[in-house]
Write a structure and sequence with these properties.
single chain; 159 residues; alpha/beta; Maf protein; globular
Length: 159
């Protein structure tokens, strides 16, 4: 069952007549799945792309290899590019991209530990980049990231 904030976000989007699409790396499609379980899903959910591997980021979403090399696949810069590319593909009012580190073995550093999540949200009015470090298991980090993104969307949707 989706969290209260995901349900609220879906309701807010439906009330505005807005749809939403996702480019998900760290969350592996879970955000799309959570939104698909809301009562308003048929009105708001346009779709999503799971772009966990660099190959998909580069070959499907056309993120330049040089950008990934310079900033790592889990970075604000790559996340924004994913959001921009997904917005073009889905022609969505709200587009969300999420990258980050839910387990060790990625690009983690002292400055970017496991739990670091990058979110980029494109709305009709602005592009919002957000970075946050969450604690817990991989699943707990994913669910916290989804809730954080949903809250950011609710905040951005206010007139």
């Amino acid at each position: 069952m989706p969290s209260d904030i995901v349900i609220k976000c879906s309701t807010v989007l439906a009330a505005k007549g807005w749809n939403i699409a996702f480019a998900e790396s760290a969350t592996g499609g879970r955000m799309s799945a959570e939104f698909s379980l809301t009562e308003e899903s048929g009105k708001v959910l346009r779709g999503g792309i799971t772009c966990y591997e660099v190959f998909v980021k580069e070959q499907i979403l056309n993120v330049p290899h040089a950008l990934i090399e310079k900033h790592t696949p889990e970075s604000a810069q790559v996340t924004q590019k994913l959001a921009e590319q997904a917005a073009k593909i889905f022609n969505s009012k709200i587009t969300v991209a999420i990258t980050g580190l839910t387990t060790s073995g990625g690009s983690e550093t002292k400055e970017k530990p496991v739990g670091t999540i990058f979110i980029c949200i494109i709305t009709p009015k602005e592009t919002k980049n957000h970075r946050q470090v969450f604690k817990g298991s991989a699943e707990e980090i994913v669910l916290q990231a989804i809730d954080e993104a949903a809250q950011l969307i609710v905040d951005l949707a206010r007139d």
